Amino acid sequence: MSNLETHPVPSLVGGTSAVAAEPVLEPLPVKEVWLGESRVRRLLPTLGRRMVGAWCFLDHYGPDDVAGEPGMQVAPHPHIGLQTVSWLHAGNILHRDSLGSLQTVRPGELGLMTAGRGIAHSEESPVPHDPVLHGAQLWVALPDAHRHTAPAFAHHADLPVVTAPGVRATVFLGELDGTVSPGRVFTPLTGADVALADGARTALPLEADFEYAVLTMSGDVRVEGSPAPVGRLLYLGCGRDELRLEADSAARVVLVGGVPFEERLVMWWNFVARTGEEIASARDAWMEGDSLGVVHGYHGPRIPAPELPPVPLKSRGRVR
Question: Is the four-CA dihedral 283, 286, 291, 293 of positive or negative sign?
């Protein structure tokens, strides 16, 4: 999925100086942005925090009634230096990319695209498509040793599950409680969708050296005794060996976490790099030719890159 903002703000992210080394409960602000004809909630990067582990971007969208509507229509656009994770609770999305991949992603399935040195893709609601669309789109920053890796796309329909009374956690990326997703990762991560039954009370095991955050997708949930409203991201810091969750109705939350990302990164539009010069070079490559890839089969023009800001891309830190 693309960042479709016409005036994206560049920022430097990563580094561990602002990571909460102890457990915290920090509700993060929500920024609403347009994705085509739909409004989505941008939770990372946001005012106050830009990363959780290697997770550097998180949009939550829906549930939206798309019956009789085009649904998601994101034209071809490029990425470098990251992985994209498509995660659905309702609806279906057709993924195309410059490798020739053509895959419909459905609820409970992992669509994992590794941009590496460069890839282009599109995402659209197929025809016909399901009447409701609800999901999350996440990006993972690639560490320096792997950011120029060959681009790839993987689809995993069968994902491992951690269960306890009233709880079913699907591990879509990384590891939770010794259960490992088949999705390839390049830094220690957790990405899990936790379904809680009405009245569930549980404690999920965590890694004390990870930092974590929880997104409530649906239902009435308390995290460590604090309300966690739908569509909000609650930052948890580090130093936890378990996470207490309570549900007063059937609920779903997404848990993301990982080892704090030490490297400093420049993020702008759909690119993750190390310098402003690399960002400018990637933008030029997209606007001037096909070196970042061509998506065949999408009916419509590709998305042009926004203009770069008139000032050099410069550091704003992990937290602002």
Answer: positive
Cβ atoms of 156 and 182 closer than 8 Å = yes
Q: Kindly state whether residue 282 falls inside one of the protein's structural domains.
A: no
- Smallest CA-to-CA distance from 190 within 174, 170, 207 is with 174
Distances (CA, A) of 279 to 91, 127, 265, 313: 33, 35, 11, 9
User: Quick check: is 149 in a domain?
Assistant: yes
Number of H-type helices and E-type strands within the chain: 1, 26
* pLDDT tier at 184, thresholds 50, 70, 90: very high
Total count of domains within the chain: 1
Q: Give the C-alpha distances (Å, rounded to integers) separating 19 from 13, 53, 67.
A: 12, 9, 42
Burial code of 206-227, b = ≥16 C-beta within 10 A, e = fewer? bbeebbbbbbbbbbbbbbbeee
Please report where in the chains the tokens 């681009």 appear, as a residue: 151
In a domain, 216, yes or no: yes
Give the β-pairing of 167-176 and 233-237. Answer: unpaired
Those residues whose C-beta lies under 8 Å from the C-beta of residue 177, and which sit 6 or more positions away, are 162, 169, 204, 205
Q: Quick check: 20 and 103 in contact, CB under 8 A?
A: no
- In DSSP notation, 188-224 reads -EEEEEEEE-TT-EEEEE--TTSEEEEEEEES-EEET
Domain CATH code at residue 218: 2.60.120.10
Taking the model in full, what pTM does it have? 0.93
d(CA 206, CA 92): 31
Q: What is the mean pLDDT of residues 292-300?
A: 96
Report the pLDDT value the prediction gives residue 8, as an integer from 0 to 100.
64
Structural domain boundaries enclosing 235:
11-258
pLDDT above 70 (res 12): no
